[in-house]
């Protein structure tokens, strides 16, 4: 390996321009961060992309920005849905109904919306824990169920659920770690239940992905991520939202026609390394059962 800096390349999708022509997609949380990037790439590949979140104005602004940037002759577009909270079951039902009625189909669903906050387990309230469970787990389930009930059950389709790098647990985010692990297990269940309807459902599990909006939401905790987690990354960098988007596009495409129930890790190998988000005192912990030689102790 040389010491020369690698030149940054201007981004363009690795997928062909007409990959999703005439397809309709819903992306939750599509107004910013990873969801914005996914919406941008899907539309550049020809899809009509409906982005939904609680903040309709943010979705409107994102849709206008993406549409202005689309290449001349691109058949894709981005549309802002009515304001939708994935914690509100009625609003989800109405969203899917609106999409199917307006566009006549729902071929792809990306469950990207979610949220969490940094807090130790002992300081976390039950209300705070359940709020994240409602958003990340229940909201994802209802989105999947309604997409299946209202369209995909009769016509087929592809669903991708975005989770988080929780393979080694998630210190200071026990609520989100539990919810995302449940989403991954739910995905494995639904892939069997829905395979006869030609519905594929998979997960993308990102590592630490840098987006301005994401790190801003964490406040001072974002600095902790950079200070403690960045040096522990095998790649010595965080991931880009485009790297998540390309994995999502592949799973949604016919190229992944034989892939369902999978969890695709996009984390630079960090799942196999301990991420030192918490400090553990440099002394012996946990009582020993049996005998343990001195060489095996601190």
What does this structure look like?
By secondary structure, the protein is an alpha/beta fold. The protein has a single domain (24-296), classed as NAD(P)-binding Rossmann-like Domain (Rossmann fold, 3-Layer(aba) Sandwich), CATH 3.40.50. 40% of the residues lie in helices and 12% in strands. It has a seven-stranded parallel beta sheet, with helices on both faces. Helix 4 (126-155) links the parallel strand 4 and strand 5 (157-162). Helix 1 (33-44) packs across helix 8, helix 3 (89-103) runs parallel beside helix 4 and helix 4 (126-155) runs parallel beside helix 5 (174-193). It starts with 23 loop residues before the first strand and ends in a 32-residue tail after the last strand.
Helix content: 40-55%
CATH top level? Alpha Beta
Number of domains: 1
Q: How much β-strand is present in the residues?
A: 5-15%
Largest sheet: 7 strands, parallel
CATH H-level name... which superfamily? NAD(P)-binding Rossmann-like Domain
- The order of strands across the largest sheet is 3-2-1-4-5-6-7
Number of strands: 7
- Mean pLDDT figure: 87
Shape: globular
Query: Can you tell me the CATH topology?
Result: Rossmann fold
- What structural category arises from helix and sheet content? alpha/beta
- Gyration radius over CA: 21 Å
């Amino acid at each position: 390996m040389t010491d020369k800096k690698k030149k940054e390349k201007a981004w363009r999708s690795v997928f062909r321009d007409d990959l999703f022509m005439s397809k309709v997609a819903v992306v939750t949380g599509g107004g910013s961060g990873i969801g914005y990037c996914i919406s941008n790439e899907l539309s550049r590949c020809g899809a009509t992309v409906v982005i939904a979140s609680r903040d309709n104005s943010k979705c409107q602004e994102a849709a206008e920005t993406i549409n202005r940037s689309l290449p001349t002759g691109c058949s894709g577009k981005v549309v802002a849905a009515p304001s939708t909270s994935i914690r509100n079951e009625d609003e989800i039902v109405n969203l899917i109904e609106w999409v199917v009625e307006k566009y006549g189909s729902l071929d792809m669903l990306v469950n990207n919306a979610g949220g969490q906050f940094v807090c130790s387990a002992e300081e976390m309230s039950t209300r705070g824990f359940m709020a994240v469970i409602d958003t990340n787990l229940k909201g994802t389930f209802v989105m999947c169920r309604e997409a299946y009930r209202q369209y995909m059950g009769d016509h087929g389709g592809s669903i991708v659920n975005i989770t988080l790098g929780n393979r080694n647990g998630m210190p200071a985010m026990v609520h989100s770690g539990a919810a995302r692990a449940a989403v991954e297990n739910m995905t494995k269940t639904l892939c069997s239940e829905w395979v006869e309807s030609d519905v594929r459902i998979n997960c993308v599990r990102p590592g630490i992905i840098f987006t301005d909006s994401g790190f801003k939401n964490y406040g001072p905790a974002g600095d902790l991520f950079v200070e403690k987690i960045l040096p522990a990354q095998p790649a010595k960098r965080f991931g880009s939202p485009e790297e998540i988007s390309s994995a999502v596009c592949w799973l949604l495409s016919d190229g992944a026609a034989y892939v369902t129930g999978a969890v695709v890790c996009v984390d630079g190998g960090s799942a196999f390394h301990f991420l030192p988000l918490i400090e553990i005192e440099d002394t012996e912990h946990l009582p020993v059962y049996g005998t343990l030689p001195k060489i095996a102790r601190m």
